[in-house]
Write a structure and sequence with these properties.
The structure holds two protein chains of two kinds. Chain A is mainly β. Helix content of chain A is 0%, strand content 54%. The chains are: A mainly beta, B mainly beta.
Chain lengths: 113, 114
């Protein structure tokens, strides 16, 4: 299947720091989604992006749909302990079928108090 | 609204045993999906159902079958479990396969095959 390259694989940061992660692909996407997964739970949708260049915020989270439609980033400002988890990007390929989303392999966020 | 529910939460099987994982959604969504999640592999699509009455293979369908029982329910069956099927299984749903692509996930079933 199509590949989404998500980086970094893991991040060890101090509480209060800002966080940045991204996803890139060689393919064009017409939707980008960002999910968070807590241990033992299913992924929860954080932000959805539908237009190239779109910048959307959800509280301390900000995500952007890259202008080339091949990438997206997620920023978290002033991290807090409950931000710990795995963050996944997911995209719907332009011209993609009904099988839905392609997922990145996730960024593990670990926060040291 | 419960969203997407899955049963059971945990299951241990012996090689060769069969079982069915159940999924239901109460959001009136048309499309439903089954994924497996393995360490370092992200989420991989097993089967999906774009609408009631249709099912299609995803990226990793071998060893699985599905049934879209009605609009609400989508089950995943392992006919003869193998240790390679040890994984966490997630069901998801979305409004419409060709429309807004936001998928909503259940809490998962953690399956171990011995």
């Amino acid at each position: 299947g199509q590949q989404l390259n998500q980086s970094p694989q893991s991040m060890f940061i101090q509480e209060g720091e800002d966080v940045s992660m991204n996803c890139t692909s060689s393919s064009i996407f017409n939707t980008w989604l960002w999910y968070k997964q807590d241990p033992g739970e299913g992924p929860v949708l954080l932000i959805a992006l539908y237009k190239a260049g779109e910048l959307t915020s959800n509280g301390r989270l900000t995500a952007q749909f890259g202008i080339t439609r091949k990438d997206s980033f997620l920023n978290i400002s002033a991290s807090i302990p409950s931000d710990v988890g795995i963050y996944f990007c997911a995209g719907q390929l332009a011209g993609g079928g009904a099988d839905g989303l392609t997922f990145g392999k996730g960024t593990h966020l670990i926060i040291q108090p | 609204n419960a969203g997407v529910t899955q049963t059971p939460k945990f299951q241990v099987l012996k090689t060769g045993q069969s079982m069915t994982l159940q999924c239901a959604q109460d959001m009136n969504h048309n499309s439903m999906y089954w994924y497996r999640q393995d360490p370092g592999m992200g989420l991989r699509l097993i089967y999906y159902s774009a609408s009631e009455g249709t099912t299609d293979k995803g990226e990793v369908p071998n060893g699985y079958n599905v049934s879209r029982l009605n609009k609400r329910e989508f089950s995943l069956r392992l006919e003869s479990a193998a240790p390679s099927q040890t994984s966490v299984y997630f069901c998801a749903s979305s409004v419409l396969a060709g429309g807004p692509h936001e998928q909503f996930f259940g809490p998962g079933t953690r399956l171990t095959v011995l």
